From TrEMBL:
Residues covered by the F-box domain: 26-74
A Pfam family of this chain: F-box
Record-given protein name: F-box domain-containing protein
Organism from which the protein derives: Quercus lobata
Amino acid sequence: MDESGLNRSSKKHKLNEEQGIVDGNTKCLENLPEEILRYIISLLPTNDAVRTSILCKRWEYLWTSIPNLGFKKGSKAKRKLFMNFVERVLLLHDSSDIKQFTLYCDVLHDGDASRIKAWISSAIRHNVQELVFDLNISEEQFSLPRCLFTCVTLTKLQFDMPCVLKIPPTIYFTNLKILTVGNVTFSDDYTTQKLFSGLPVLEEMFLEYCIWVNLTAVSISSPKLHRLRIIDDEQNSDDEDGCQVMIFGPGLKTFTYCGPICNDYCLYNSCSLERVVINACDPGKTARQVAYRMYRLLSGLSTIKKLKLSSGAVEVLNSAAELLPHVPMFNNVTHLEFDDGPTYLDRVALSTILEKFPRLNTLEFPEGINLSVNCKNADGIPAPVPPCFLSHLRCIKVYCYAEVQNQLPAIKNLLKNAVALDKIVISSNNHFARDFEKQLMEFPRGSKNCKFIIY
């Protein structure tokens, strides 16, 4: 046999071996118990799970019992195929429960709306536990199926849809533990209050980029709520009146707010609250009004242990200096962090705020520190020096994302005034200058025990 014949024979033999492996693997899968096959298929994305029906006769309907269904829109050209696919999957799904149902879809006209409502209703009839849908709605008129608001099996509900949220007369989520609402416009006080009041076992609530302009006053109260996050869109800042949002959190552990503080957020009975994040952005024309809202928000946080403030939150308080002496004492806070932009040490508001943390142990500046261009005080920190600098402050962390050299005067001032300091941690994404450490070592230190950690 010539050389070419030998090569062909070798390739054919190799191909037969590979085919044998494939056939062997297929036979191994075919021999598995049906429950294991169903479990394997359930791990696949919904599209791929449905495709397994063509593998062999035994696999044809195994996918119809998968507990997790996820659908994400494709291109406009394939829109009709997508809509029909979702409908077919739900139609052929057997009577077993659906654990998770996820849908990302456009709602372009009334026909789409009715189909999507039918899909959500179908998931509810299958005792869905986790329901997530993100609907890109072209018209403001869209309502969710009424059965959604009394679903007893739901433990997680997450929906994002830019339209007015219509609440039915009856609403009660007996087992809902996690609720995320995004981009909706709350219609009125009465129906919104019904939503917030129908959550007896809720543990986590996230209200993201919602529109509050139609509301005057509502309360959020759930005995088991331990995590609350509110993110406001800047377009809400045009509403000067805002809404009074009263938060009653006997079990609340963490609270996060991001936005222009367009509403009056007040916390009551929050003695269990431990960690708070306030990321306030530039309020523009309403700066003074926002400063008063910021003050009222801080007034309900006196028992917390850890606080993270944006540099914008500090600037907001500068707009109403008469409020600064009345900011409550934070006797339990041991960790304070200033984020979202460099912190200017010579701001009067910052110095006054620091006076309110007598037991502060750790002070962190993730976006760096600086002194104002027109700073006239050589010490940087306005007198008097905050009490915690003299007694409790043990650790300062500075992350220098800007030019490190420009932040040296501010670091120098911290070292001079923090007389109880054990260590200062300085990190940067840029290379330190050769003489950087030398300059630090030459700075006068209020604490002889202070160590440098640089990386």
